[in-house]
Write a structure and sequence with these properties.
Layout lengths: L1 H27 L11 E10 L6 E11 L2 E11 L12 H4 L4 H4 L13 E8 L6 E8 L5 E3 L1 E6 L4 E5 L1 E2 L1 H32 L25 H5 L1
Antiparallel strand pairs: 1-2, 2-3, 3-4, 4-5, 5-6, 5-9, 7-8
Helix pairs in contact: 1-4
This protein binds zinc ion.
Length: 229
Amino acid sequence: MRIVKTMAAMLTVGFISTICITCILAFFGPAPAFDDTSDAVTRLHTSGEIGNSGHWANTHCGYYKAFGATSISCSVNVAGETYGVPSLHNELEFVQTLPEWARAKLSEPLGSTTANWRWLLDSRGWPLRALSCTALQEKGQPWIIRCGFGIRMSPDRPVFVPLRPIWQGLAMNTLLYALASIAVYELMSRVIQASRFRRGRCPRCRYDLRFEYRTGCSECGWRCMVSAD
Ligand SMILES: [Zn+2]
């Protein structure tokens, strides 16, 4: 029963650490990128007529990676009246460079009915991305955030805290931080025990045994079973 409680406590510590570190990365990490000057893993530029409408569309997408942050941004500009948007799913080469969890999200901006918009998928977490958020901006309008809240909502460099779980990353990071907290806990308790031994005290309850370790500790029962044999 005790081991179950310890495991639950460590997993809780792991989960809270994951959320805290992800939020720190959102607050202090790099803002999601939109411009072509920053280092993108891959980029997509397409230009073409939408069907036989006579409207031309320019699509710019970028996939950016930084420490603890991954973002995908797209902008679509259609010359002419409000019309539909080109399918990003057709741009297979670009889509295949994206992480698995991000691909499905590309269908989100396709619901937009305006001609000119920008779309951003931002995710944070280390070592794996644990939380993500999407934001859509129609030309001249404020950003609409889905699953997150804004910190600095400048038109070009919006920064927000993501709240949508990326389950695999969330689980792996939680497990990793739980293991790390067990290691830290073990190390700390060994250091504390060694220091109590050096001072002649009981390593479990700190009761002063005056270096008399053979009979164990009368206060907490440490090693009493062993000494009774
Ligand atoms: Zn004791």
